[in-house]
Amino acid sequence: MPEAGEVAEVFLVIVGELLFLDDDGNIVARENRRTSLERYEAYCEANGLELRDLTSFQA
């Protein structure tokens, strides 16, 4: 396990949606494959970056 201040790589696999809840348990945001790709595309467009096909292993 890394010590405090060391760099660590983390790979997460999430099946389904990642739900963000407020203190009362209400859903305030959700993340899934569609929202992730939409955020990526919007970021690239806003920053003049070329889109890469993240759905392919050839990317």
Describe the structure.
The chain is an alpha+beta fold and 59 residues long. The chain has a domain at 14-51. The protein is built from one helix and two strands, in the order ββα. It has one helix spanning 33-46; strands at residues 18-21, 27-31. A two-stranded antiparallel sheet has the order 1-2. Strand 1 (18-21) and strand 2 form a beta hairpin. The longest helix is centred in the C-terminal third of the chain and has 14 residues, at 33-46. The radius of gyration is 16 Å and the shape is extended. The chain starts with 17 loop residues before the first strand and ends in a 13-residue tail after the last helix.
Number of helices in the DSSP assignment: 1
Poorly predicted regions are: none
Proportion in helices: 10-25%
Summing up helix and strand content along with how strands pair, one would put the structural category as alpha+beta
> For the terminal residues, how far apart are their CA atoms?
31 Å
Q: What is the number of E strands? A: 2
Question: What share of the residues does DSSP label as strand, in percent?
Answer: 15-25%
